[in-house]
Design a protein that fits this description.
It contains six helices and two strands; from the N terminus they run ααββαααα. The chain is mainly α. It has a single domain (about 5-140), classed as Sufe protein. Chain: A. Strands 1-2 form a two-stranded antiparallel sheet.
């Protein structure tokens, strides 16, 4: 099993083959198109992430002390972003997720090339993913939606 940092390094390498952000956006769209669809039963109001310009659903389950994320968005760029976050964090322990420094986001220039509303959405997605990890670590809930209202 690869570490979060190994996965981040692979993401950085994949994006570094493109100099232009137009091409990097195309890669995000390709990732979105390749991502599995989220089961309709998870497309609920309680799985929507607040602060996202587009609709983004995030489902998390903890199996054998590994957090498994699934997500989708109705916007291709955003679906590509959530796919990247899932690629980096899914199938890792809550402790690994909580201690992860997601340096790939700045290394590939993602944050600086997002609109302010999409950047806020990125922060909200990360916050929700870390919140799931924290709750699973504490053993407070099993496979229930956690929101930080």
């Amino acid at each position: 099993m690869k570490t979060i940092n190994q996965i981040q390094d692979e993401i950085i390498e994949e994006f570094s083959t493109f100099d232009e952000w137009f091409d990097r956006y195309a890669l995000l769209i390709e990732m979105a198109n390749d991502a599995p669809l989220l089961d309709v039963r998870y497309k609920t109001v309680s799985n929507l992430i607040n602060a996202c310009q587009s609709r983004v659903w995030l489902q998390a389950d903890c199996v054998d002390n590994k957090v498994i994320y699934q997500g989708e968005s109705d916007a291709l760029i955003v679906k590509g972003i959530i796919s990247l976050l899932i690629k980096a964090l899914s199938n890792h322990s809550p402790d690994e997720i909580l201690s992860a420094n997601l340096y790939f986001i700045d290394s590939i220039g993602l944050r600086e090339h997002l609109s302010p509303t999409r950047s806020n959405g990125l922060v909200a997605m990360l916050k929700q993913m870390k919140l799931y990890a924290l709750v699973f670590k504490k053993g407070l809930l099993k496979n229930e939606k956690i929101k930080d209202y």
